[in-house]
Design a protein that fits this description.
With 585 residues, the protein is an alpha+beta fold. The chain is built from 18 helices and 28 strands. The chain binds one RNA strand of 76 nucleotides through strand 7, strand 8, helix 6, strand 20 and helix 15.
Length: 585
RNA sequence: GCUGAAAUAGCUCAAUUGGUAGAGCAACUGAAUCGUAAUCAGUAGGUUACGGGUUCAAUUCCUGUUUUCAGCACCA
């Protein structure tokens, strides 16, 4: 989809269209007061206070109609420049405008407004010259939005729309919006039986169906192998901990509102864990460690529970029960750079395997002006932040710095991936933590015999298996690479009576070679089975009949293609095994 | 959590202003045995998300709950 914000001309057009929208709303709802109407990545919106009136989608056509009317009447759009006092006088009855104006600096800002016929609105501009310019637009949705983006404020009504220079572009955009729905992992997840939800289990608690379980297991195996090679030590720990555990870690004080309430059992009080760090801290503390033993890398595929806001829950992407690809790396301060580097290298390696290239590294650092907000150890912070930068530069990774976005306990690196649809999502994360090891009084014995506190690196490469699966389903439109596909090969006999025996032979052979294979031996027509095979996005569909049986070959059709290929059995098994082993995309 | 919208068969959707719920696909049974995206016929399938109310009568109107969807806010 076109990024309207980056296209100057479309930007002005869309912003003018936001004014046209406001103009029309003012005609239909004279009590309307307007906040702001900016251009966004795809289109524009306007935040409006309509008093007691609540708009629904059904009201949009009549607003569009009024917009078209104003557009056709060809009103000139004129810029008016005002002093701050003039502006305040002009908009004195509109508390939203007064709020905007009073926060402007009159010395270096010329306050401007734009007037089109009987409508005038405060605006920096620029604008089109006439309302006639906005001809190809569409109002998309209406929703609530907090004034100034603050949940403590009143909720205004926001109308979203989009405007183009010609009809083709508009239709193209509307088509893309429709297509995006087809790509939604919730739809794919249903169509391909990846996961389900049930009211009786609860909101944000998806259940992985057999097909989804295969995908997840493959992802687990994949990252487990990588981590084994990097000397990670995997553990299993319980999904609950006592309240005291989280009091020790500090989560009880700082993260409680994101946790499920506690439950009392006998004399103990438990909570479902929102993360695994405390458990892993205890595992580290179970033994005495020498400086020679570090880094120690403790990994776990661990179910965590977070009390996400009900409105935030979404498919597999945002859930209340998730499984993290989690690990905690216990390092000496002098090892921060090396270990961090290994994590970033692993991230790059994994992204390459999945063919991801549209992502951004975001380095969240401390705000040096606001040291109160952060764990107090200047030397540690400076050393760590410099090391992180050094590593990113050394690896030639593009990144941007987010000053003031660091956690209380240390700087962090997030990777934001731009999916095929929708806004950027955070997949991987890597966070330094100076605090947690101290709270758990973790130590190692240094070369001089003294006890030192290790630094902890929290990291998740695939993030959570839930979100990663959602992401990969949308990226591939459900056509997962062969190594991840729930069913890799579907065998269709041309005729059950004559070809089933040969089909079974091939089926057994593929099974022996660890291929996830299905044999469709139903009494149905070939066309019928082929259609289902295509819809279910199986990578390889084998068609076996007289020809193949007599020549001891197989014919296959590759997903997404109408062509049929013929290979000997051995050739096919080799090709398939290689593809799976190499995790080809 | 907030502002709205929605929930009908396993799935996708119908049901005129309130009058006892229909179709396609899937399932099941039977016939057809077929070379690359839907063979034909029949059968079965529903306390219309759940609870309360209005009414002679509620899928339809009101109300509470749950879940889903679109945004907003949130996102260690």
């Amino acid at each position: 989809m076109k990024n309207i914000k980056e296209d100057e001309k479309l930007n002005v057009l869309n912003h003018s269209c936001a004014h046209l929208l406001a103009h029309a709303v003012k005609h239909l709802y004279p009590q309307a007061k307007f906040w702001v109407g900016p251009v966004i990545e795809s289109g524009f919106y306007y935040d409006i206070d309509l008093g007691d009136v609540t708009l629904t989608e059904e009201d949009l056509p009549s607003i569009e109609k009024e917009m078209k009317k104003i557009s056709k009447s060809d009103k000139l759009i004129k810029r008016i420049e005002l002093s701050k006092q003039e502006a305040l006088d002009m908009f004195k009855d509109d508390e939203y405008k007064v709020d905007l104006i009073s926060r402007m600096d009159e010395n270096d800002t010329v306050i401007s407004a734009y007037k089109q016929d009987d409508f005038i609105d405060l605006c920096r501009g620029p604008h089109m010259n006439s309302t006639k310019a906005m001809k190809y637009f569409k109002l998309l949705k209406v929703s609530g939005a907090y004034w100034k983006g603050d949940a403590n404020n009143k909720m205004l009504q926001r109308i979203y729309g989009i405007c183009f220079e010609n009809e083709e572009d508009l239709n193209e955009c509307l088509r893309e919006i429709e297509e995006a729905k087809e790509r939604d992992h919730r739809k794919i997840g249903k169509d391909l039986s990846i996961f389900m939800s049930h009211d009786l289990v609860g909101k944000g608690m998806p259940m992985w169906l057999p097909n989804g379980a295969i995908v997840r297991k493959q992802l687990e195996n994949y990252i487990y192998e990588k981590e084994q090679k990097l000397n990670y030590l995997h553990v299993y720990t319980p999904c609950v901990g006592t309240v005291d555990l989280y009091k020790t870690s500090g989560h009880w004080d700082h993260y409680k509102e994101n946790m499920f309430p506690s439950m009392k059992v006998d004399t103990e009080e438990f909570v479902l864990r929102p993360m695994n760090c405390p458990h892993h801290m205890l595992i580290y503390g179970n033994e005495l460690h020498s400086y020679k033993d570090l880094p120690i890398r403790i990994g776990e595929f661990a179910a965590d529970f977070r009390y996400e806001a009900s409105g935030a829950v979404k498919g597999l992407e945002r859930v209340r029960c998730m499984c993290q690809n989690d690990a905690h790396l216990f390092v000496r301060p002098d090892q921060i750079g090396d270990e961090f580097k290994k994590v970033v290298e692993l991230i790059l390696d994994v992204y390459k395997d999945f063919g991801l290239n549209n992502y951004k590294f975001r380095l969240s650092l401390r705000d040096p002006e606001d040291k109160e907000k952060y764990f107090d150890d200047d030397e540690m912070w400076n050393n760590a932040e410099n090391k992180l930068r050094e590593v990113l530069n050394e690896l030639g990774v593009e990144y941007f710095e987010a000053i003031g976005e660091a956690a209380f306990y240390g700087p962090k690196l997030d990777v934001e991936v731009k999916p095929a649809i929708g806004p950027e999502v955070t997949l991987s994360t890597c966070q330094l933590d100076f605090l947690l090891p101290r709270r758990f009084e973790l130590t190692y014995v240094d070369s001089d015999g003294s006890k030192k506190t290790p630094v902890v690196i929290h990291r998740a490469i695939l993030g959570t298996f839930d979100r990663f699966t959602a992401f990969i389903l949308e990226e591939t439109k459900g056509a997962l690479p062969t190594w991840l596909s729930p069913v890799q090969v579907n065998i269709i006999p041309v005729n059950n009576e004559y070809h089933l025996e040969y089909c079974n032979e091939i089926f057994d052979l593929l099974k022996e070679n660890n291929v996830r294979v299905k044999l469709d031996d139903r009494e149905e027509k070939l066309n019928y089975k082929m259609r289902e095979s295509v819809i279910s996005k199986v990578p390889y569909t084998l068609i076996l009949g007289d020809k193949e049986r007599d020549a001891k070959t197989i014919s296959y059709r590759l997903r997404g293609s109408n062509e049929t290929f013929n290979l000997s059995i051995d050739e096919f098994i080799k090709k398939l095994s290689d593809e799976i082993k190499n995790k080809s995309l």
